[in-house]
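Let's practice the habit of predicting before peeking. Look at the sequence and jot down your guess about where helices and strands might fall. Then scroll down.
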Amino acid sequence: MQLKAAGPAAAGPRPRPQPRTRWERRVRPAGSLPPRWRSRTAKGLAYAAPTAVFVAVFFLLPLLLVGQMSLSDWPLLAGDRGLNAPENYTDATDSTLFWPAVRFTLLYTGIVTVVLLGLALGLALLVQESRPGAGFFRTVYFLPGALGLASASLLFWGLYSPTTGPLSRVPEQLGLVDHPVSFLGTPTSALLSTVFLIVWKFAGFYMLILLVGLQRIPQEVFEAARMDGASRGQIFRSVTLPLLRPSLALTLLLCVTGSLLAFDQFFILTKGGPDNSTVTVVQLIYREAFQRMDLGTAAALSITVLAVLLLLNALQFRGLRRTDAS
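Done guessing? Here is the structure:
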């Protein structure tokens, strides 16, 4: 009797495959993403594409063009006449208005930052607790922020006018002076009048930022400090200010950047006067571009201002991180 060869079935049961580990199940070969993940990636790219195109068209390309202008002889009406680097940068710094404009811009930035942040913090502390009328005062303080800066500047230009403005005649009617007050007639009064406009316009906005930061501080921290016998001043110095540091850093960054780029308020209120005493750096860029018709020098000033702003922002972020780490 002849025996048949054993078939696959007679060879015994097949060894069962070993289960894959969790890491092996996660790692997939390149290009083997499931359709669900591929569709999500495509959707993410589709959502990000409009923003990427917007940034490229309205920021990166103009920045490259300004960089090219800063290195070229580029009159406003004649176009590019070729490279002349670094003549634009030397012409910008050699201008008789450059260093006075830098000093005035720094002075204005320092005054506005100190007054505005101090007032905003005080207003935020006044309305942080839920009490009768707190919501009304929050709305009243924030209301000027809803007005555009150009509109607010025109409003104050009318209020400050020595001929038609109501504010200029108040001291005369009170018998303090013999003639209407010129709020924009001297360098000091023009500076202080503009600072008053900016504080009136933005104090409520910065108050809102600081108010959000105050409301994020747990009340248990204040209660524990009171139970330890801390006074109001000690709580403010040792509890409120350290925990409010992120909001203070944000307001400081916005205030410094906005003040260094000041243009609308001085262009409308003072036109750089009297005697070019209130010319800011951005006004100087405007004069170079549209009055002297020199886009090359204006672009060089713009690149310089951008570099200074990036440096200041980097220093502020570094200081914030160092303070948080300590």
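How did you do? The chain has a mean pLDDT of 85.
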